[in-house]
Specification:
By secondary structure, this protein is of the alpha+beta class. The protein contains nine helices and seven strands, in the order ββαβββββαααααααα. The protein is elongated and about 65 Å long. Bound molecules: iron/sulfur cluster and FE2/S2 (inorganic) cluster.
Length: 239
């Protein structure tokens, strides 16, 4: 038997915990325990999920003090019969464990996370890419936009304008894609006051990432790329 303590809010916005006893085995996930509550104890409890297999990125929540995916966190891995669950920090709460992702995706859109071409895009054949070129950015392309890194980042928590680890990782991912020609449209965003210079390299984002994306590493590489780009401009070089 596990005791789940779930942080909620009343109609006045005051926080409190609801406690639920859930008969789950150790192999069960936190998401399965929450679904048990929803189906058998309390239908008013709200949380977000879809794929149940760490692909859709929608079930992030703080579980025993760390941002985690509910669908891939087994109860046994928490080494406790008491599981404390809260909504992801650094996001506004809509209800119970459901948070507002609009500001996250607004930042994401700002970094132009798509292939940009100088030409008209009217191709008779695909743009070739070797396995080596694909491997350059493959790690960063594993991002499922779950936002756990943003919840873990101490700078995101204190500076709402900071773009944050996931958007900056996406920015870098497209800058190093051999098919892309849009670095000049993104690098000023990376070098802006809300970009890489805000990162303190705490590394919490990489710790939290369920897909081993290593956003802190991407941000460091992006900072170097940004400096080189600025230097080239100062020296009058071309991209
Ligand atoms: S970098 Fe990792 S933690 Fe951040 S949004 Fe992508 S998958 Fe989630
Ligand atoms: S339900 Fe899709 S990532 Fe957890």
């Amino acid at each position: 038997m596990y005791k789940l303590m779930v942080k909620r809010r009343n109609e006045h916005g005051d926080e409190y915990y609801d406690n639920y006893n859930v008969p789950a085995d150790k192999a069960s996930t936190v998401l399965e325990a929450l679904l048990y509550i929803k189906e058998n104890i309390d239908q008013t409890l709200s949380f977000r999920y879809s794929c149940r297999m760490e692909i859709c990125g929608s079930c992030g929540m703080e579980i025993n003090g760390r941002p985690r995916m509910a669908c891939s966190t087994q109860l046994a891995s928490l080494h406790s019969d008491i599981i404390k669950i809260s909504p992801l920090p650094h996001y506004n709460v809509i209800k119970d464990l459901v948070v507002d992702f609009d500001p996250f995706f607004d930042k994401y859109k700002k970094v132009k996370p798509y292939i940009i071409r100088d030409d008209d895009g009217n191709y008779s054949a695909e743009i070739p890419q070797t396995p080596e070129q694909f491997n350059e950015f493959k790690e960063y392309a594993q991002c499922i936009k779950c936002g756990l890194c943003m919840a873990a980042c101490p700078v995101v928590g204190t500076d709402e304008n900071y773009l944050g680890p996931a958007p900056l990782t996406a920015l870098f991912r497209y800058n190093i894609d051999n098919r892309d020609q849009g670095i000049m449209y993104r690098i000023d965003i990376a070098n802006s006051d809300d970009g890489t210079s805000r990162c303190h390299f705490a590394g919490e984002c990489t710790e939290a990432c369920p897909k081993d994306v290593r956003p802190s590493f991407a941000i460091q590489k992006l900072r170097v790329q940004g400096l080189k780009y600025e230097l080239k401009n100062i020296m009058g070089g071309k991209k």
